[in-house]
Amino acid sequence: MSDADRIDARTAEAGTREPLTGTLIFERGAEESRCVEPPVLDVPSVDLEDVLGGHARAMAPVLPHVTEVELARHYEHLASANFGVDSGFYPLGSCTMKYNPKVDEWACRLPGFARIHPYQPEETVQGALELMWGLQEALAEVAGLPAVSLQPAAGAHGELTGLLTIRAYHTANGDPRRRVLVPDSAHGTNPATVAMCGYEVVQVPSDERGGVDVAALKRLLDIDVAALMLTNPNTLGLFDENILEITSAVHEVGALAYCDGANLNAIMGWSRPGDMGFDALHINLHKTFATPHGGGGPGAGPVAVSDALAPYLPGPVVAQRDGGFAFAYPERSIGRVRSYAGNFGVLVRAYTYIRAVGGDGLRDISGQAVLSANYLKTLLADAWPVPYDRTCMHEFVMSGGPLRKSTGVRTLDVAKRLLDYGIHPPTVYFPLIVDEAMMVEPTETESKETLERFAAVLRRIAEEAAEDSGLLHGAPYSTPVRRLDEAAAVKNADVAWSPGDGSER
Amino acid sequence: MYPKELKYDREHEWVRLDGDVATIGISDFAQDQLGEVVYVDLPSVGEAVSTGESFGEVESVKSVSELFSPISGEIVEVNEALEDAPETVNEDCYNAGWMIKVKVEDTAEVEALMDADDYEAYIAEEA
C-alpha cells in the first residue's frame, strides 16, 4: 500500500485538515495595506533626528502590512491548525487537560479584574485582594495545610518554592541537610527541583504494587535527609496505600514530607495531603482547578504549607487587616519568586471555578474523574495491559510492550495514529518504569460515549498494527503537519522571520 | 545481536579495539531501550575522555541519556554523520552508528570489559 493510498483509505474518519503551508503574516498583504489608520496628529510635530540623534532608526521596522480581513484569516488559519480540549478528546495523562469552563473566562475579563494595575493603592483593589485571600483560604482547606502563597507561576515553580521553604526551615534549625529522596515514578521536575535547591537526589524504588517501597525508604532515611518528595496519587495513577507510614518514617528522622500536588484533582474533597502527614504541597491551578494550559501557560502553582513552614513562604501573601485586605510579607520569607501578585488572571479563573461548583462540587469532580478512568481502564483491559493493575485514581498507565513484541509497532506510532481519529494522544513513555508506557487521563468532563469511542479506536489501532504495521509507522496522515523532527526543531530553532527572495514558497 | 569481537560495559556501550584506537558506540540493547534516536550530542576531536565519565548525550523520543566512556583517552574522530542522521544509531548501531574513536591510554582497560557472553548474561539479569 502506498502512502498516498493510505492517506485516502485511512483518513475518512477524521477528515484531512488544512495543511499548514500558508504564507506567513509577513508574506501576506501589500505595502499599502493597513489594518488601522493612525489618528491625525494633534500635537506639535517633532523631528526625530533632532530629538534622538544617532538613536533614531535609519529605516522603518519591517512589519506586516495587511488588511483586517487578512489578519483575521491568518489567525483563523493558525487556530484551525491547532488542537485543544475544545476541539476534541485530550486524555494527556499527568497533564490533566480538563475542559476550562467559559464562566472562568468571563470572570477574569471583568474590568475590575482585567483593568487594574499592580501598583494601584491597595484600598482601590480590595475586591481583587479579597479574591486572592478567598483563594488562599479555599486552597488551604483542600490541602489540609494552613498557609498558602499564590506567587509561583507554574507547578515546577511551586515545587522549587516549596523545597526552598523546606531548606530555609532546616537552615534556620541549624543544618540544611544534604539529600532529598524521590521515588522512581516521580515527575522529572522533582529531581530537577532537588538539584536546583542544592540537594543531592536519591531515588527510592517502587514496590510491586506501584507504591513506595517502604522498607527501601526506611533504609535510605537518616538525619542527612532534608525531605521526601512524593506525588500522591502517584504517576501510575495509584494512591499510596502506606502513606501514613511513609510520612511518619520521614518525620522520625526530622525530615519533611513534600507532596507534588500534580494529582490533587483525583482526591480533592476526599482526602487532604495535610492529613496524610505532608508538610508542604504545590497545587497546579491549571490542572486541578481547570485554568488554561498547554502551549506554555500561563499556569499557577500556589504552595500550601504547615504552620512550621509558614514564616518562610514567599510574599506577598494577602492578609486581613483593619476590616479589609492587604499584602503582607511572612516574617522569615525566602523572598519573592514572581513579580507582582503572581499570575493573577489564572487566580481569578481558579477562584471562579471553586465558587461555581462549591465544596461538594469539587468532591463530585474528583469522584467522576476517578470513575471515568476506571471505566476506561476496564473497557480496554483485554486489549491493553496495565502493569500495576489495581483500582486506579484519575489516570492509569498501559503498556504497549506486548503490542511492540507482536507487531513491531511502538507506543509512539499508536500515539501518532490516534491523531488520525481526531483524538489527542495520551502521554507516552512516562512514567519510565512502565515499558512503552501510555498514560491515559480522561478527566471528569468526558461523556460515556466519548470514553467508549476512545476504547473502540484503541482496539481498532491494535488491529491495524497486526494487519499493516507500516500504516502505523507512517501515521499521522490527516494532520496539518505529519511527523516532525522535534529534536532538530529545538536544537536548531528557527523562529525569526527574515525576508526571502520568494523561492522558498 | 552482540558481536563476539566487541567488548561491552555496564552502561551499554560497546568498544572495538584496533591497535590503540577504540571505536565506541551503544549496544543493540541500548538502542532498543531508547527507542527512536532523534539527536546525538558528541564531543569534539582532541577532547579527553575518562573511564566512567560522560562524553555526550543521546536523545530519543522517550528521554535524554548520558553516554559514559568505558575507557580513558583522547578523542581522535567523531561520527559527524549522526548529526544529520541520528536514526543510524537504531539502524546500524555496531557499524555506521558508531559514535567516537578514542586513542586509548591503556589497552588493558579494554581487555577488562565484558565480552559478548558476559554482557548478554548481564542484560538478561537487568531485564
Assigned CATH superfamily of the largest domain in chain A: Type I PLP-dependent aspartate aminotransferase-like (Major domain)
Order of helices and strands of chain B: EEEHEEEEEHHEHH
Helix count of chain B equals: 5
Structural class of chain A: alpha/beta
CATH class of the largest domain in chain A: Alpha Beta
What's the CATH H-level homologous superfamily of chain B?
Answer: RNA polymerase II/Efflux pump adaptor protein, barrel-sandwich hybrid domain
Q: Which class best fits the helix and strand makeup of chain B?
A: alpha+beta
How many helices of chain A does DSSP assign? 18
Let me know the number of strands of chain A. Answer: 12
Low-pLDDT residue intervals, each spanning 5 or more residues of chain B: none
Radius of gyration of chain B: 13 Å
What's the architecture of the largest domain in chain A, going by CATH?
Answer: 3-Layer(aba) Sandwich
- Write down the overall geometry of chain A: globular
Number of strands of chain B: 9
Assign a percent range to the helix content of chain B. 10-25%
How would the blueprint of this fold be written?
The complex is a heterodimer of chains A (505) and B (127).
Chain A: H1 3-10, H2 48-52, H3 68-81, H4 102-108, H5 111-114, H6 126-143, E1 147-149, H7 155-172, E2 179-183, H8 189-196, E3 200-204, H9 214-220, E4 225-231, H10 243-252, E5 256-260, H11 273-276, E6 280-282, H12 285-288, E7 303-305, E8 317-321, E9 324-328, H13 344-380, E10 396-399, H14 401-407, H15 411-420, E11 427-428, E12 437-440, H16 448-467, H17 469-474, H18 486-491
Parallel strand pairs in A: 2-3, 2-4, 4-5, 5-6
Antiparallel strand pairs in A: 1-7, 6-7, 8-9, 10-12, 11-12
Helix pairs in contact in A: 4-13, 6-13, 7-8, 13-16
Chain B: E1 7-8, E2 13-18, E3 21-26, H1 28-34, E4 37-41, E5 48-49, E6 54-60, E7 64-68, E8 73-78, H2 81-84, H3 88-91, E9 100-104, H4 107-111, H5 116-126
Antiparallel strand pairs in B: 1-2, 2-3, 3-9, 4-6, 5-8, 6-7, 8-9
